[in-house]
Structures are given as C-alpha cells and as structure tokens.
Amino acid sequence: MDSNRLPRRLAAILYADVAGYSRLMGDDEDATHRTLCNHLDLIAESVQRHHGKVMHYAGDAVLAKFDAALDALSCATDAQARLRACNADLAAEQRVEFRVGVNLGDVIEDRGDIYGEGVNVAARLESLADAGGICISESVKVAVGNKLVCECEPMGEQRVKNIAEPVRAYRVLLTTSTSLASAKPAIKLPDGPSLAILSFKTVGGDVEQQSLADGLRYDIQTALVKLAGLVVIATATTNTYRNKDMAVEQAAAEMGVRHILEGNVQKSGNRVRITVTLTDAVSKQVVWGERYDRVLDASFAVQDEITEKVVTALDVKLASGEPAKIWRKTIKDPKAREYYYRGLHEYLKGNKEAMAIARENFERVTQLAPDSALGPTHVAFSHWWDAFRGWSDSPSRSLDLAGEWAAKAMTMEDADGQAHAVMAHVLLLRREHDKALEVAQQAVSIRPQCVNANGHLGNILYYYGKPAEAIEHVKRAIRNTPVYSPWFVDILAASYKEYGQLDNATAAAREALRLKPDDLDARLVMIDAYRRAGRHERAREIAQEVLTIDPSFSLAAWSMRQPYREPATLTRIVESLRTAGLPE
Predict the structure, then answer these.
(1) Contact (CB, 8 A) for 261 and 288
(2) Contact yes or no for 173/148 (Cβ under 8 A)
(3) Which of 109, 256, 346, 406 has the CB geometry, 3.0–4.6 Å to 380, for a possible disulfide?
C-alpha cells in the first residue's frame, strides 16, 4: 500500500452548470448575473434540504456532496423542478437553465474541498445532460434501485474526456408536470413510533356530525401530543388531506410517519357510531380497529378509550405513568361539549370570520363549564390569532386579551400547556424575557411534541440569544407538521444566521419565500446573511425588493417590534440593514 496515497471515500456527487452561460452574459450581463445568484441560492437550499453539502461554487457551477445516492438524485430532481418554476415567466432566451450530473464514486477530501475521479465523472455527466435536465451514472442507478424518484432512459456507454473507461449513463426523464411534491422523496421516518390522525369522515354534509367528528379527532390528538415517546403530525398538515382520495401508504410517506389513524362518525339523535382503524403504512397491515356504538352522555369515555387503545397498539410508554393526566376527563355538561365541538369546527377553518364564530362558542364553554381550562384556552388562542394574522382592529388589545384568558387557563387543574404557549408569546412581546422563556419551557414539558409549543419556544430562544437551542425546537416543530407556516422557517433562518451558519440561513429564507413570496422577514435575514458573507451587492438587491414590496418600510418602525433581549444584537442587525440601503 502506498503510504503517500491520500485517503479516499465513497460519496454521491452532484455537479450543476449553466447551459449557454457565455451567450446569456453577452445578451444581458446584469440580468443574467441576478438570475444566476437566485438560482445558485435555490440549488444550495435543495442541497441542504436533502442532507448534502455544497463544497464550492465555480462561477456558474455548483459542486455538492452527499452521503447517499438517493439524496443526491432527489436533490437534483427537486432543484430542477424549482428552477423550472422560476424560469416559467421568462422568455426562452432569458432563461438560466442548469445541466446536472450525478455520480457515485471515490473522492478525496482535502482542506474543505473534494477531488478525484468521482467528481470528474459527475462533471462529465453534466455535459451530457440536456439544458434543464439530469444525467446519472450506472452506479447511481444501481445504488438507488427501486427507490428511484423518476424514470431513466439508457444513453449507453459514453466516452468522456480524461476518463479511461467508458461511463454508462442514463438520462433522467423529467416532465413539465413534475412538481416539488413528486420530485422529493418521502420524509424520513422518526426513530420511534409516529402517527398522523386524518380527519374523521361523516355521512352527508351535516355540520353537527362534522363538528362531532372534528372534536373527537382533536381530543385524541390533544391527548397523544403530550406523550414524549410519540411523534404526532399537527392538524395543520392532516387537515390538508381532508376529502382527498389517497392511499394510506402515500399519505404516511408524504407526512413521514409509520402509522395512520382513520375514523368514521355517524350520529342519529343521541346515538353515535364511531369506527376507528390504525394502519401500519410500512407493512400495509391494520394494527388495530374497533367500532363503538354509544349513547352520547356527559363523559369523554369514547375518546379516552380510543386514545388508550392507540397508545397500547403503538407501545408508547406514558411519561408520567398516570393515564388520568393524559386522557381528557373534563367538560361534564353535554351542552358545553356541543359548543366546544362547534368552536373547534370553526377554529380549524383558520379564517377571520370563522375565528369570530369559534370564539363565541368557546366563550359559551367557559360559562357552562367554568372549571375546565378548554374554554379559556381556546378563547386565548382566538385572540392571539386575531393579533398575529392582523384580523383585529387593535392588535395590542387582542394580545392583552389573549394574555388575560391564557393566564386564567394556566391556573386551572386541567391546564394542558396550550395556554402556556400563548402566554409565553405575550410575555415576549412585553419584553419579559426570563418569564417568557420559563413559561415556554413549561409548555414543551407538558406537550413535548406539540408543534405550537416548540415553535413558540424556538422563537423565544432566538430573541433570548440562544440560536442553537432555537434551531433544535423549530426543526422539531417543522418535522411534526410537514405543511408548515412560513413563520417557522423565518425563525429557523434567523437562528441559523445568528448561529453563524450563513448557507443554512439563506437556504431556509429561500424556503420561506417559496411558501410566502412577499415575506419581508425572510428577506431581512438574507440581507444580513449576505452582508456577513461579503456578498454586499446581493444584499443591496434584496433591500430593494423589500422597498418594492413595502415602500413605507423603515428601520425605526421595524426595530420597535423586535423583542431582542440583548440591545446590541438588534443594533448590529439594524446597522447591517441600513448599510444595505434600507431607510431609517
């Protein structure tokens, strides 16, 4: 063995280069450069999303490394789908299109870069790809096997420059209908048990039946989300599958869970029939199923029984060992329960008009069931959403009301942690940072897998000055709701920036812009990140985008709304934004 030979390792390599770059630069240098920078950011985001690492940029080219061939190929198809969407509104002669080559081979890692034949083959495969297309080696095709995210067309053995042996290549067949959903692979399953509860179905369009079905599902969800050993996908995601005719395996794969809980509800008078099925989507086997014929009374016996059966079937150990703290046993009054279910039905619609109706129902719950935290908790949430979404004529008053109702719910015996999440945000905006952090941590301790509890804690940790911990909790929130809100990603991007991971920060910000194209917070993160990275011209370009979207934007007004614990952090960010061209 040659002791002077540098160590090599197997890696999947993605090499992307612009087709016709010289012509594009000759036609319009400035426009091409701006589009290229946007596209390079987008590719970097796709690399990060698929667990890869950008090794370097070479003018108009990108070199990235992955541990798995499937991740590299999934990244390539994802990036090309996104690039195609970006180019859709441009004239054909103005489109900046990439060719992509993907190879699996040996590489040398040295001083933060990679070299070797594995890289060279990927670069040669890129030259064989069509503009906007992908070319892969046989080693990639074999490694991915039946997990291919797309079809391939054999190109035969290809003689390529500086490679001694012919390379067997394949053209990846991408159609114009390829979407982001079809381009990306299924989300990786968690290590422990995982579950999504789909909307319970009803017969006909009866609102009362649907309210009961939504209430039953929500009760089960609320109980299960308290279990530390179980990942439960948030209702924001599962609601998107309502009325969709989709196989259990597909829904589970898209949400990244192993188990799916489904239900049917039929109500006639005071009698109800509930059918529930728990399916293991990996084995395609029904783990447990039951039919309940019940008379609706003042208890939550059916919800408790279903929840307990699910926990047993998934072999999840209760954190406290006290089921009474997990199962909901409140709201004794049947009329109060009816108002509660009606409120939930409206609340889950997520719009201004429905939220007002929901609040009226929850206020009735507080009157009829004064010892239950459910009413005041959800009244608090309704006020918080009014403030957060801009549905209120007086956001400050809505926040005060949210705090008052949350404080009331927190003191009750059956407080379930949701009111804590609302109160923590209110305290943050009041600049009571230590108290906000304490209450937010209490919310997560009660509801360890709750999306909102983790998201709010991540937000507070960011403003508190603990970006690494913020990243951990926001990523947990995003994992538990694959259909996530842009503000989660805004927090993640800002936290990455303050933690010094600038590539991850800009990648997350690009994802926020994909979800919400007019997102100012994501653009502000990008401005600061690009300035820190020395890309001052790009920072100035994005600052102009901010002023185009909001001509009245001012740093003084923006900074007044930022509850940073350390004034020096805000001062530094404001100076960075000012230098990029944003007005005082």
Answers:
(1) no
(2) no
(3) 406
**pLDDT tops 60 at residue 452:** yes
- Counted residue by residue, the chain has a size of 584
Place of tokens 């995982």: 194
Q: Is the pLDDT of residue 313 over 60?
A: yes
**Could you give the angle at which helices 352-368 and 374-389 cross, rounded to 10 degrees?**
160
Kindly write down the DSSP assignment for every residue of 30-53, as one continuous string: HHHHHHHHHHHHHHHHHHHHTT-E
Q: What are the pLDDT digits (tens) for 382-412?
A: 999 898 878 999 989 999 999 999 999 999 8
Query: Tokens representing 398?
Result: 């809505």
The pLDDT of residue 442:
93
Q: What span, in angstroms and rounded, lies between the C-alpha atoms of 485 and 496? A: 17
CB 98 within 8 A of CB 83: yes
Q: Which residue type is seen at 105?
A: G
Cβ–Cβ < 8 Å for 424, 443 = yes
Query: What single string gives the DSSP state of each residue in 141-207?
Result: HHHHGGG-SSEEEEEEEE--TT-SS-EEEEEEE--TT--HHHHSPPPPPPSS-EEEEPPPEESSS-H
CATH numbers and ranges of domains, the chain = 8-183 (3.30.70.1230), 186-329 (3.40.50.10070), 418-579 (1.25.40.10)
Tokens standing for 103? Answer: 């190879």
| Percentage of residues of the chain with pLDDT beyond 90 | 34
**CA count, 13 A, side-chain hemisphere, 399:** 14
Which pair of structure tokens corresponds to residue 318?
A: 């209760």
d(CA 240, CA 427): 32
Closest CA relative to residue 42, chosen from 100, 126, 122: 100
Distance CA(464)–CA(46), nearest Å, equals 30
Structure tokens of 584? Answer: 């005082």
Report how far residue 419's alpha carbon sits from residue 381's, in angstroms, rounded to the nearest whole number. Answer: 8
Q: Is the Cβ–Cβ distance between 442 and 460 less than 8 Å?
A: no
CA pair distance 519, 510, nearest whole angstrom: 10
Helices and strands (DSSP H and E) totals, the chain: 25, 14
Taking only the tens place, the pLDDT of each residue in 506-529 is 878 887 887 788 899 999 999 999
Is 83:132 a contact under the CB 8 Å cutoff? yes
User: Whole-angstrom Cα distance, residue 220 to residue 206?
Assistant: 22
d(CA 212, CA 135): 52
Tell me if residue 77 falls in helix, strand or coil: helix
Q: For residues 333 and 156, what is the distance between their CA atoms, to the nearest angstrom? A: 73
